[in-house]
Amino acid sequence: MLTTRQEEILKLIVDRYIKDPIPVGSKLLSKELKCSSATIRNDMAALEDKGLLEKTHTSSGRVPSEAGYRYYVDNLMQPKEMNAEDMNKLQIVFRNKQLALTDVISKSLQVISDMTNYTTIALGTSAKDNLLKQIEVVPMSESSMIVIIITDKGHVEHKNINLEGVDSKDIKETVNLINNLIVNTPISEVNKKLEFEIKPIIGKYVVQHKKLYEAFYNVFNDFTTNEVRDDINIVGRNKILEQPEFTTDIDRIKDVYNKLESPEFLHKIEEDNDNNIKVYIGDESGIEKDVSVIKTKFKRGNEEGTIAIVGPKRMDYDRVLTMLEYMKENIER
After folding, report:
1. What pTM, to 2 d.p., does this model score?
2. Which of 156, 307, 310, 319 pairs with 202 at a CA distance of 20 to 30 A?
3. Pairwise CA distance, residues 229 & 130, whole Å
4. DSSP state at residue 64
5. 90-100 pLDDT, tens per residue?
6. Candidates 3.30.420.10, 2.170.130.30, 3.40.50.300, 3.30.390.60; correct CATH number of 128-225?
7. pLDDT band of 128, cuts 50, 70, 90
């Protein structure tokens, strides 16, 4: 347990270090808290012993540790009302009724990135997480057609296939079988159902069942294994690299930039099912020890996804949390 003064000291150090990444000394704090420097140094030493503060090699002052930031976020941080300028810039976006949801998210991400100088990310739900709603076929010629896959989230995928010499009645019957037996199946599990539920019976209804089964199996296999996501929006990718923590270390810059490009990191961002706003500090972020990620899920009608803000570990947490909450509420309204 921390004393009241120790909590005050920790909060002041975090607040000051967020604004200016210079180690904080006891002399500066003693003036603000009206205590002697010796008293402040004792409390700072106690906070260091508890793992909440760290010394640096270049100064006698202290900086928050990862555990210190976590204690600050969980226990000391107070909700900050959005200032008039921030709110006005976001309201302009959300009050524009001409914008589609994707444009609203994209523009609000840009506004937040510009205001905070952090990186912002939005991820729609991967089509692999969708349920099959319906498939349709559109004949293009005697030997080719377009297969259209529609999911419950409104994702639409199409693929051109060649089926020379296949009767249109067989095609229609195959489509009916799939729509009747596999609707509401997760896209990632459709091929398994094709193999175990459609394949054993398709021969009873379709003359050229082998050719049609293989064609539709390949369509879904391509969809699930080679899916290219177009629902990723990363704004201000370089902004995190402009923070003082990274400007002098090329290797760290490359590592952080590569993490922001990696599918593994993007998957980690969206893997939580919790709709609350979550704060991942330092190593918890999955990027780098001096990076934090604040993220939340959103859902509006059939559309859902994740929005996240990526910044330095000394991120302005209370301001970012307020912005993210405001954005989430307005997206879901």
Report:
1. 0.71
2. 156
3. 13
4. E
5. 999 999 988 88
6. 3.30.390.60
7. low
